[in-house]
Write a structure and sequence with these properties.
The complex is a heterodimer of chains A (125) and B (520). Chain A contains three helices and no strands. Chain A has 125 residues and is mainly alpha-helical. The chains are: A mainly alpha (125), B mainly alpha (520).
């Protein structure tokens, strides 16, 4: 199961990196979402994938029985999901505003903050 | 089943001493005030007073915490009574406490400066609530003892920095913010990936626990790969060379108060985490990667200095000076000896204060001169002699010239790099300092010393020469700190030395988290 998930996570990362490297802001956003989910799956897999052994400490023991899935990474994922969701919401609005204000979704054309023909400082007076 | 369960192995049963609360109070105060300011968001006139009083209290709390750590060693408090490593620990050691204090001082100065710089509409957009939450994130990052919690604080400060960055919603800001947001989000995602692998290897997220378990796992686990991932993630947050391009693209777009906060605090959080993870948790792996870090450090210094020379807009110029400073701190990480780490810590403290002050100077130059372009500025010395004097001192400090605070960390780093025979790193430090001196001296020459090139329309320069206390007080205090550390470096040198030794030999840190030595 873990091996299968590793391949899946690899595919997620591949897609995410491909999208993030493109010039269109919407594709970059999709890449960022995919990247966040790739990381969530990675954390999930790191905590062992099984449903046969419930993560309940049996009577008379003081640790989990071996082979049980670790619940902590799932708590980490919950945190990460909430954070990446709120960031995505913010980024969506920001990208839309950027498209409205700058009139383009091509990152090469977004040169308002760093103008292309910027003047050099005077070398003397 | 009725037998009472012995909880003492998992829970703290007695209340912690009152002084330990100092560890969590700074963060709790900032989050609480952020919430309060959100609640009164309609009454904008209250914001400034509440926020500045809160920041002053934060300075006092952080100073108290530093005093406690200095006299008693690292302090730990665990959330929800769980014993570490089960509960999330807040552990303040000397390095974290002193960085938190520097951040609080700078935020207080920026909070006062904002009274004149941020107009009513900026306040209605929520400048002060965001400032409080930003400080919660920064302070939390400096004081936490849990690596996933560090990630959470990174996100807290990141989301509040987004809010601050687009205050005003000008097209230029949106352009800068988009690049800043996407690249920083990818940076923190890299950090999260590294945390995931770290948990898979160690089965714990507590830093003290990681530090003591690393030795046993070194043989079998891919710790060098893990450390490389952490270095990449934190270098991206700190704007080190191959991954620095988001900084000059965005830091000049917001209001100068916001730029000042970012330039002083955010990149330093990246450096702080880099030092914490590489020096304290994975020293052996850092040694293996030190050449790469050193190369990146040298290139960061040179790129920053050359970039500063090529800028016409003084806010962008200061951005490149920030990058050059990051290179110096990375050099300390690359060398890794206690002397070098103490140099990097000193540099971080100097940089927090000086870079904030430089951005405030840039803002005041823009207000007095009516433009940020060097080609159009001039005659400020005649207009505002006292301000020009303070600016001159800050320029000298940022260049690393005596007798100001920039000198000592550079001397420490130079000596450390010559001690291990890395002459090229020492050369990079010197060349970069020389080029920065040229760049900042040119700013002084053009903007302050020469007469006004052509008379600008009077309407464009409403500033006048009247001294405004909301500008003079923060600038004067920060300049005073810079001069003080330049003239009396002894206490701070000793403090940085002790902090660096505490990072290199984290026995006291571990002892503070696991007082009983812990059986596990």
């Amino acid at each position: 199961m873990e091996a299968l998930f590793s391949i899946l996570i690899g595919l997620f990362f591949t897609g995410a990196i491909y999208l993030v490297l493109s010039k269109s802001t919407v594709r970059i956003l999709l890449g960022v979402v995919l990247l966040g989910n790739a990381v969530n799956l990675l954390l999930f897999t790191a905590g062992r994938l099984t449903r046969e052994v419930p993560p309940i400490i049996p009577a008379g023991m003081d640790t989990l029985s071996p082979g049980a899935a670790n619940p902590l990474p799932q708590a980490l994922i919950l945190t990460a999901i909430v954070i990446s969701f709120s960031f995505f919401a913010f980024l969506l609005v920001l990208t839309y505003r950027a498209y409205q204000e700058l009139g383009t979704d091509d990152t090469d054309e977004m040169r308002l903050a760093e103008p292309r023909n910027e003047q050099l400082p005077p070398v003397g007076y | 089943m009725a037998a009472p369960i012995d909880l003492s192995a998992a829970l703290i049963l007695s209340a912690p001493p009152l002084a330990d609360w100092l560890v969590v109070l700074p963060v709790a105060l900032m989050i609480g005030l952020g919430a309060v300011l959100m609640m009164v968001r309609k009454s904008v006139r209250l914001h400034g007073g509440i926020a500045i009083a809160g920041l002053a209290l934060l300075v006092i709390l952080d100073a108290g915490l530093l005093w406690r750590v200095w006299t008693h060693g690292p302090v730990t408090m665990v959330m929800g009574r769980w014993l570490p490593p089960f509960g999330i620990a807040f552990t303040a050691d000397l390095f974290g406490a002193v960085m938190a204090l520097a951040a609080a001082i700078v935020a207080l100065a920026a909070g006062i400066f904002a009274l004149s710089d941020i107009d009513a509409s900026g306040r209605r957009y929520g400048f002060y609530p965001f400032l409080m939450l930003l400080m919660a994130g920064v302070t939390g990052a400096f004081l936490t003892g849990d690596i996933f919690n560090l990630y959470v604080w990174f996100e807290v400060l990141l989301i509040s920095s987004f809010g601050l960055l687009i205050l005003g919603s000008e097209p230029e800001q949106i352009d800068g913010a988009l690049k800043y947001a996407v690249l920083n989000l990818i940076g923190t995602t890299l950090f999260l990936i590294a945390v995931g692998y770290l948990y898979a290897i160690f089965g714990t997220l507590n830093m003290a626990d990681i530090a003591r378990k690393a030795a046993g796992l070194r043989e079998t686990a891919p710790l060098t790969t893990l450390t490389a991932l952490f270095i990449l993630a934190f270098a991206m947050k700190a704007a080190a060379f191959p991954v620095n391009f988001w900084l000059p693209a965005s830091y000049h777009t917001p209001r100068v108060t916001v730029s000042a906060l970012f330039g002083g605090l955010l990149t330093k959080v990246g450096i702080y985490s880099l030092i914490r993870v590489t020096i304290m948790l994975f020293p052996v792996e850092r040694e293996a990667l030190s050449l790469i870090v050193a190369l990146s450090a040298a290139l960061t210094m040179l790129v920053g200095a050359l970039g500063a020379l090529a800028q016409n807009d003084i806010r962008r110029l200061v951005g490149y000076v920030v990058i050059a400073g990051i290179g110096n701190m990375m050099a300390g990480v690359a060398i890794g000896t206690p002397a070098a780490v103490s140099g990097a810590i000193l540099y971080a403290l100097h940089s927090v204060v000086t870079m904030t002050a430089l951005y405030l100077v840039a803002g005041e130059v823009g207000r007095l001169g009516g433009t940020w372009a060097l080609s159009g500025l001039g005659g400020l010395y005649r207009k505002a002699p006292w301000f020009s004097g303070a600016a001159f001192l800050l320029f000298l400090a940022a260049s690393g010239l005596p007798p100001l605070s920039g000198l000592w960390p550079k001397v420490a780093l130079l000596k450390a790099s010559l001690d291990i025979g890395a002459w090229w790193l020492a050369a990079a430090i010197l060349v970069s300092a020389f080029l920065i001196t040229l760049a900042l001296a040119r700013v002084f020459l053009l903007a302050f010393w020469r007469p006004q090139p052509e008379p600008v329309p009077e309407a464009a320069a409403p500033g006048g020469s009247a001294v405004d206390w909301r500008i003079a007080l923060p600038l004067g205090c920060l300049t005073g700190l810079v001069v003080l550390f330049g003239l009396l470096p002894e206490p701070l040198l000793g403090l940085a030395q002790t902090a660096a030794e505490g990072l290199g030999e984290p026995a006291a840190y571990i002892q503070s988290v696991f007082p009983g030595g812990a059986a596990r």
